[in-house]
Amino acid sequence: MLALQRLGLLLFIAGFATWIFVLTLSQFQLTSAGIDKVVKPEHRALVHEKTSFMLSRTYDSNVAFIRDFRGAIETYNEGLRAKKDWDHVINENYLFAITKESSLGMLTGPGSSWLWFWLSMGLAAAGGLLYGLAGLRRLPGVRNEFQYRHAATNRGWIGMALGAFLVGFYIVLYFYPEYVTNWVLLVDPISRALNAGPAGQWFLYGFLYTLVILVMGVRMLINYRHSRYQQLRTASVMFFQVSFAFLIPEIMQRLNQPYQDLKNIWPLDYTFFFDYKLNEKLAAGSLGIFMLVWGIALALVAVPVLTYFFGKRWYCSWVCGCGGLAETLGDPYRHLSDKRLKAWKVERVVVHSVLVFAVVMTGLVLYTYFSGQSTVLGFLDSYNIRSTYGFYIGSIFAGVVGTGFYPVMGNRVWCRFGCPLAAYLGLVQRFKSRFRITTNGGQCISCGNCSAYCEMGIDVRAYAQRGQDIVRSSCVGCGICSAVCPRGVLNLEVGPVSTRRI
Description:
Elements: H1 2-22, E1 27-28, H2 32-38, H3 41-50, H4 62-82, H5 95-101, E2 103-104, H6 112-133, H7 157-175, H8 181-186, H9 188-195, H10 201-223, H11 228-254, H12 275-283, H13 286-310, H14 313-316, H15 321-328, H16 341-371, E3 375-376, E4 380-381, H17 382-404, H18 406-409, H19 413-417, H20 420-431, E5 435-439, H21 449-453, H22 460-466, H23 480-484, E6 490-494
Helix pairs in contact: 1-6, 6-10, 7-17, 10-11, 10-15, 11-15, 12-13, 13-20, 16-17, 16-20
């Protein structure tokens, strides 16, 4: 087992190192044809003029290329802003598209991207699978020794390094994607095969997201193979991520239909009611209308009905992509969730505040859509509010903090403190649901496994010792507390709606 783990770790490190090295492979050369291909017609002449000094140069670094291109456009824009000539300012950000189009070298030749894809992502994925498969040689059951002592799982240097990388990756991907165009070129052939178009930053993100869930999902299946419930729900999140979140939306684009993650639900999908999304669906005809009705039905009908019968676990632990990543990639960090009462009080305020923010923003967006007026009550600008939500909640909270802080605050940071859909589901579960975790206090030996492994910060042991059912709005019904209990004290059940809710 140890030899297989070491081989898997070696392959992963080799693949990851190659993936980082790929960023250094290309040279960059701006061409007139490249400008004409990615720049809008109304801006082409200006971009040609302002960047003419770059046409005869070959850049060995994307940093220098990006600096010169950005500097040329910003100098032009600053002059216009000084004169308050807002109509002629170039607001479009062409940096990513022009950097990718100007790339030269090994990643752009026939078959070259496939070679480097397998040497980087392919090798890393193979290493991760081997490392996980080594668990088959252990006896079934969860082993948790050294979780609170290992440098990778207890806020040690390995965990902090991983957290720093994830934070940096999200910041670059969200705000500076032009610096990772080489990574995008690696998945270009896959994008063209699925949607008949070139890959962009979000295709790269979706592909990596899906790959990580699949690889770490195999690890999850092996580690929790003693529990049929864990096997089924892990397979479920893997299926929904691959099909509903990745393949189907990409194929729909190939068919010239609107892109939509069919399992994403408002208000988690906060852009669902944005004007351009509504117009896109309405213009797509019957299929677009179906997608619009489907999304509204999920939010207004499926959420309360399914949560009444099954609790919020039907979505948070069986369908959701955020939950899927947390359960697979984040599983080694679930014990780091803060179990203190103070954390629970902060959680309630923050997550419900985000829900209110999302509802208000959506109301303002719909008001603007139907009335044509962006300002409400004389001071609320719907465009500014949705931009603010997208930056602070959709990008910083959900992405940078929500995933980057796994090794610091546990794997459900976003689900626990920020997800507006989790708050919505939790309200239904808290007051009108048949789901609960029942306990048998007489069998509890106070080992603490249940509380340690609760990713939502619930002190499960305290309930078990009192023989008290657990009905909490934050509980996602992952069932890990039951899976790690050596005495069978905890059971996930449905029954009559109880008035004893805490």
